[in-house]
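Hi all, long-time lurker, first post. I run a small reading group and we've been trying to get comfortable going from sequence to structure in the token notation. Rather than ask abstract questions, I figured I'd post a concrete chain and ask someone more experienced to write out its structure so we can walk through it together at our next meeting. Sequence below, copied exactly:
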Amino acid sequence: MQYVLLYFTGDSVKFDYQKEVQVHENQVFTIKCEVQETNPISTVAAFIDNHELKLSALDKKTIDNRITINTYSFEVNATKNMNGKKVK
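-- Answer (accepted) --
Happy to help. Here is the structure in token form:
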């Protein structure tokens, strides 16, 4: 079975994978990311190449009564042509 290697990038986003993930080809897997809430509220989107991924809002938490973190998730079906692509 082939593997697909995906890389993650984003200055203000914390992914649940540090820098990369290796998954089986044609495996659907879920990725979570955390984004600090800003004012005005930021638009959050995830892309592989120019293909936008559908995000689901999961959680909102406040740290030390001052920083709000929003958690989102999205699913990826790891196809062969995604090998070496960046998720951003």
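A couple of things your group might point at:
The mean pLDDT is 82.
The longest strand covers residues 67-77.
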